[in-house]
Write a structure and sequence with these properties.
61% strand, single chain, 121 residues, mainly beta, 8 strands, 5-stranded antiparallel β-sheet
Length: 121
């Protein structure tokens, strides 16, 4: 980092960006009240941006008229979501699980896999 006021000091404009989302979905899963050890789950839905704007950054060098603009990553207005999970109940309070989730829309993709142990108390 350059010394404040030095020839290469980069001053970034400060701003706050807030974005709101609404989620909807439909899930199919075995009931929590079921005594079955094997617990499958599948879900489908939509992730909708209801407010907000792209997060762009503007900066300039000290004592220079040059400004730099960095465009933020675009977000699709609506993306589809899908998830599938399987859990195995070892005891009433301990489960092993694995979940696959995906979100996709126009130029907006995200996938994840989560595996772990769930403790209930």
């Amino acid at each position: 980092m350059g010394k404040a006021g030095g020839p290469f000091a980069l001053i970034v404009a400060c701003d706050r960006h807030v974005t709101g989302f609404a989620d909807s979905g439909l899930t199919f899963a075995r009931s929590e009240a079921s005594d079955a050890a094997f617990r499958p789950y599948v879900g489908f839905g939509a992730h909708t941006r209801i407010e907000g704007k792209p997060a762009d950054a503007v900066a300039g060098y000290a004592r220079a008229p040059l400004t730099l603009t960095a465009l933020g990553a675009p977000r699709a207005q609506v993306t589809g979501t899908a998830s599938a999970s399987v859990a195995y109940r070892l005891r009433s309070s301990v489960q092993l699980f694995s979940t696959i989730e995906a979100q996709t829309g126009h130029d907006d993709y995200r996938e994840s896999i989560t595996t772990g142990v769930r403790l209930q108390f």
